[in-house]
Amino acid sequence: MSRTTVIGAREAQKLKTRQAMLDAALGLLEEQSLSSLGLREVTRAVGVTPTAFYRHFRDIEDLGVALVDQALGNLHTLVRATLVEHDDAEDRIDHTVALIERHVRAHPAHLRFLVRERHGGVRAVRLAIAAQLDRFVREVAAVLALDEESGGWSEPELEMLAGLLVDQMVLAVSAFLSAMLDEGPTTAEVAAATRLRLRLIHLGREASGRRAP
Amino acid sequence: MSRTTVIGAREAQKLKTRQAMLDAALGLLEEQSLSSLGLREVTRAVGVTPTAFYRHFRDIEDLGVALVDQALGNLHTLVRATLVEHDDAEDRIDHTVALIERHVRAHPAHLRFLVRERHGGVRAVRLAIAAQLDRFVREVAAVLALDEESGGWSEPELEMLAGLLVDQMVLAVSAFLSAMLDEGPTTAEVAAATRLRLRLIHLGREASGRRAP
DNA sequence: GGATTCAGTAAACAACTGTTTCCTCGAACG
DNA sequence: CGTTCGAGGAAACAGTTGTTTACTGAATCC
């Protein structure tokens, strides 16, 4: 399933420094946004010459786009699995919120980058994130379509619901990150509030199906 | 109701340059984020010396915080008025979405700044925006409390609902802004999708009140 | 095993940044 | 009316930035 190319020690080293730059950039981006990140900052943090940067990226914007894919990488499949695994509404909500909290704790920098640059100042990165989230929305919609309660729901309606849910997840990620910095409510409060919101949305879904689909 | 201080020609000029700096900054921020905005950029755009900047702000962060209040200024009261004016759910949704679209067209730069810096790289600005939005949430909750359907709703539950709605408004603002730049869906599609979302949330509210409040 | 490719280096470029110190000159005050 | 005050200007400061050009030396290819 995974396309692996046999790899020489030559380009192994290249990939290693490339990844080092991405990691260093992610670290530096915890306290600033992409549009103020300097290419010299990145290379300095890695320990290479500024010129080496150009062997891997055209400019910082290019690096940002590369960063998007890594950041959204696993969350897709994790959420999908959680949704498929549980079909009771309350279970789904609890497990999804717990999953998000765990994921934020495990990869704070990646997710901070996503949340920050989703509406950030670099157009190409904004578009890359939007494209990834769109894929995510369609995946979630596909899972929702399997539920019994999706009886008379059209595809656009399901995508609307999925979009609503994905936005709630992103907002939850942002709130968890704030909680970890002691800005705003605590982690427990964020989890509780998110569950409440998701429950309300679920009720809306049920009610919507029951009257005019 | 408005506290107006009698004003000399002296500080009238000072306020004028201060406002010119805020406006110039807002313009420059359409294509970058606050953390990359230079104080020299701002003064150059206004046509004053870099040193003049310090007569008005300690640094760019300070200017950013000042910008927050201007940006959120009117939307509060407009939304409040719209909610109070209509109590039919469908009317509320239609008028609120229309109001948001109009407001985005009228003040794109202010709103872009808000959406961008809400999760942006400058902590003080993030906190200022969060504080303003929190006030907004409490205002909306207060209006919702007047509805009949808010029978057995506790205050935290009402604030949860209000928070959900305010987040939807912010997301709608962001989507309208993207539409104006021909990123993503068209303006009409954004309006339609937002109305769908708000309807679903309203159904959830009704259903939630009907069973366990 | 010799030729070639290419990741990373070294040094220099002009342009820009935030901040300081001192100065100017018109309005405001007593 | 003379004095004080304060918004804005001039010039210089040491650092920083992105990008170019020419190079080295080790892994790869034939």
Automatic annotation (TrEMBL), chains A, B:
Q: Which SUPFAM superfamilies match?
A: Homeodomain-like, Tetracyclin repressor-like, C-terminal domain
Which residue ranges carry the DNA-binding annotation? Answer: 38-57
| A GO molecular-function descriptor | DNA binding
Q: Which UniProt keywords apply?
A: DNA-binding
Segments traversing the membrane: none
Ranges in a coiled coil: none
Would the keyword Glycosyltransferase be found if you checked this record's keyword annotation? no
Q: Tell me the InterPro entries matching this sequence.
A: Homeodomain-like_sf, HTH_TetR, HTH_transcr_repressor_FabR, Tet_transcr_reg_TetR-rel_C_sf
Say which domain of life the source belongs to: Bacteria
* Stretches assigned to the HTH tetR-type domain: 15-75
Q: Which PANTHER family does the record match to this protein?
A: HTH-TYPE TRANSCRIPTIONAL REPRESSOR FABR
Protein name (database record): TetR family transcriptional regulator
The record lists the organism as Streptomyces sedi
